[in-house]
Amino acid sequence: MKEKLQRIQEEAAKRIQESDSLEKLNDVRVAFLGKKGELTAVLKGMKEVAAEDRPKVGQWVNETRAQIEKHLEDTRVKLEAAVMEERLKAEVIDVTLPAKKMEIGHRHPNTIALEEVERIFIGMGYEVVEGPEVEYMDYNFTKLNIPEGHPARDEQDTFFIDDKICLRSQTSPVQARTMEKGELPIRMIAPGRVFRSDEVDATHSPSFHQIEGLVIDKHITFADLKGTLEEFAKELFGPETKTKFRPHHFPFTEPSAEVDVSCFKCGGKGCRFCKGSGWIEILGCGMVHPHVLEMCGIDPEEYTGFAFGVGLERIALLKYEIDDMRLLYENDTRFLKQF
Question: Where does the sequence pass through the membrane (predicted)?
Fold first, then answer.
């Protein structure tokens, strides 16, 4: 047994000496000290050794293991030093080069505007709900009282994937999905990216963001809608802001309105920013159409509600007096650093 251990030690020493890389050295470790290594096999064969000889044989095995491990460790240290020396020769650092400038990022104007809107509505008891950007036509149109063949489908210039699926043209489908759950009352806003096949110009983009709100409860009236949006406008544009509701038509609300706010640049007197009118249009709104409630499983005789929608980019453009929407997407740090 002692001769066998001596042979294992000599073989291990020879292979360690021939190892010229850390990978080969590790192979030697596995071959002799691993679970299926030669020295491990000797330990497993101890049951065949006479009981009175086991202590001495065990001592020989441990001494052999210790010598092999020491040889492996000494060789590893030498190989690692050689590798480091080669790296230092190859990775020469020119200390005369200028240091890399560390730039700290910050929030995009859209993100700043969105967080402000979310803060306002969360403060009024609303929750923020998100939904899929690739949507079924049923949710994007039909459940919003826009059946197949309705002209509003053409007006939205939707990107169609097939005859049942499209890229959502509004975040209203999130409202329909929430109403279907039947967990009433509902107070929510649905921010997110939407898609329409618009030409890119100063005020249009094929991909932009909307924030839509929905309230469903008993005894909700247009007065609740008016008060909510007045408070929202004052929080967003300043306490002196006034609102004006103009009759309009949306398929999913009845009655419907568009909302203007008094120009925060001139205080409503008329200037270049508001094109001399003293008012700036910001969003559309209305009372949820009874048929929309029915399609989503809500009894319109018991519940009523209101909805509104505003473009996130429009808020950012107005709040920060940006005159071209394209600036938000060009990733020019000289522009973005201003916010």
Answer: none
- Ordered DSSP codes for 132-169: -SEEEHHHHTGGGT--TT-HHHHHTT--BSSSSEEE-S
The string of pLDDT tens digits covering residues 55-111 is 776 676 777 778 878 888 888 888 888 888 888 778 777 778 888 888 777 789 999
Tell me what percent of the chain is helix, strand and coil, each rounded to the nearest 5. 45, 20, 35
Rounded CA separation 123/265 (Å): 26
- Kindly report the pTM of this predicted structure: 0.66
Q: How far apart are the first and last CA of the chain?
A: 80
The half-sphere exposure of 303 on its side-chain side, counting CA atoms within 13 A, is: 21
CATH superfamily of domain region 109-336: Bira Bifunctional Protein; Domain 2 (3.30.930.10)
Phi, psi of 11 (to 5 degrees): -65, -40
**Radius of gyration of the chain, Cα coordinates, nearest whole angstrom:** 36
Q: Which amino acid is at 261?
A: V
Q: Which residues contact 68 (CB under 8 A, 6 or more apart)?
A: 9, 12, 13, 16, 32, 33, 39
Sign of CA dihedral 329, 101, 339, 189: positive
Are the C-beta atoms of residues 137 and 173 closer than 8 Å to each other?
A: no
In which residue are the tokens 């419907």 written?
A: 256
What does the pLDDT look like over 114-164, one tens digit per residue? 999 999 999 999 999 999 999 998 998 889 888 887 776 666 667 888 888
Helix intervals (H) in 238-330: 290-295, 312-319
Amino acid 319 reads: K
Q: What tokens appear for 93 in the block?
A: 């650092």
Q: Residue 212, SS3?
A: strand
Strands 186-195 and 127-128: parallel
Separation of alpha carbons 215 and 213, rounded Å: 7
Flag whether 155 is marked binding.
no
